Each structure stands twice: as structure tokens, then as C-alpha cells.
Amino acid sequence: MSIPARPAFEINWLTAGDGGALRCGHWRPAGCVRGRVLVLQGLSEFLEKYTEVASGLTARGFEVMSFDWRGQGHSPPGDGDPAMVFERHLADLAEVLDSAWLGGPPLLLAHSMGAHLALRHLQRRPRAVARAVLCAPMIGIRTGGTPVRLARALARLMIGLGLGQRWLPGRRHYTPLRIPFTVNPFTSDRASYERLRRRIEADPQLAFGRVDWYWLAAAFRSVDRLHAPGVAASITTPLTLLLAGHDQVVDSRAAQAFASGLAQAEVRWIDGGRHELLQEAPAIQAQVWAAIDRAFLGQAA
Hints:
Elements: E1 8-15, E2 21-28, E3 35-40, H1 51-59, E4 62-67, H2 85-98, E5 107-111, H3 113-124, E6 131-135, H4 148-160, H5 190-202, H6 213-226, H7 231-234, E7 239-244, H8 252-259, E8 265-270, H9 282-300
Parallel strand pairs: 3-4, 3-5, 5-6, 6-7, 7-8
Antiparallel strand pairs: 1-2, 2-4
Helix pairs in contact: 2-3, 4-6
């Protein structure tokens, strides 16, 4: 798939109600605006990583907006309780969706942790967005060779010992600068992986967000809230879930099971895709963009 020309890109700052700052990005199409798309990043991501995604959307006539979650990209982490990281993200998302900057209910494109937070928000406010495409949503977490029950217990133990802010094993250097392409779990596309590496090398302050025991315990609690009785059925926003066939980061089968309880949801498996579906190889990208076109262009029309 050819990559469209890069659209105009602006950086703005949004001040949250608690005084925290969110670094926001805004891409405009060259011609008439078909609609607005809010892009929600995954864990450890940043605005610049979505340059090519924004190019694809603006080429289709969409105005694109996104922001760095606190502690990611150039958004400062703030001084909040580390155990409440997901609640803080949800509060920030609510402020972004309510802000004049966004200008009303947009379309939503979200990845991984961003897709998880979108579902949490839409359970509270199903009409906050017109329609959403959720890529590799974090509805279940893969914990490598450690059983999930043990990972949960370890998180509680480390926090109880006062070690909650220690990095998870192996996460301190969990970046493309340290992980060879041949063993990365994110994408099968070397060009995308090398492009990400160059962006981090050019701006080391885009360092990946901290992933510690507090984060893991908070993630498990947030996942549990999604799976509480009645939550899925209360999310009535039209959704498309794109699930990666070779995902090693989140549990695609858990996402498929969750989707069966949603009011309006289409599930599409992306053959051969690893976790970062929006950064994948051309043949896989073709499947992803076909699903986005089906969801967004129909909605815009």
C-alpha cells in the first residue's frame, strides 16, 4: 500500500481539570473535510508514531486529532496516585471528548490500551462517539510464560512490599532501540519498525511510558471492570473490532468473547497480523484499511 503525502500537523496543549497537560496533535486534509477522527494511542506510544495513519485518514478527507496519554510522548506524567493511572486516563479522555477543540462526537480509531479505555468510556457514555474502530483491543492481557493468576498475585505482592514503582521485568529497555526486529512481537513489517526506531533516536524524550507493577495491577482491575456483568451489553455504540491473528501482547480470543455481548459490534480477524495492526506490512494493512473504510466512509456518508 502506498503511503499518502504527509498532511499539515499542528501541536497544541490541553490543560486538564487537575492542571495536568496533554500534548495534542491535529492533522488537516488538503481539501473538503468529510468528518473528524480521534485516534487513541496504545501503551508507550506518541503522536509521531501515527504520522502514516493520519496520512491515510486525511487522504480520505478526515480531520485527525490525537493526544499523548500522561507519561507518554511529551505529555508529563503528573503527580497522581500511580494506582489510579487508568482512572486518570479516563478522566483525560472525557475532557478531550468534551472539549471545544474536538467539536462534538467524532469517529474513533483506537489501538490496544486506547481501545480498552474507549470501551470503558463508552460504557459510561455510549453516544460520546459516532462509531469506533478498535484495533487489537486490550480486553485480556498476555503475560508471556507467567500464568495470569500468578502475574496478578505478583503485582499485589510487589505493591504491598512498597516496590510498586519498579519496572516490570524486561520492560525498562522494551523499545525498538533494544529489541531486534527479528524477535519483536509488534509488527512483521521491517520498514515500520525501523521508522519507529529512527523517530525515537531523533527524539529520545519520546521514551516509552513507564510500565511498572502499579500499572499492571491497575490494568488487571480495569480489565475486570470491563468483564463485570452487564457492561458489554450497555455499550451501544456501533463498533468494529479488528483482532490480530498472531497477537502476543493482548488476548484476541478474550476480545472475541467480549464482542459477543456487545449490542452493535462487527469482529474482523486480520490474517497474519501482529499486535500493532496500524503499523503492519502492506498486505495486512490492506485488510485493516478495508475495515476502516467500511466503518468510517459508510458512517460519514
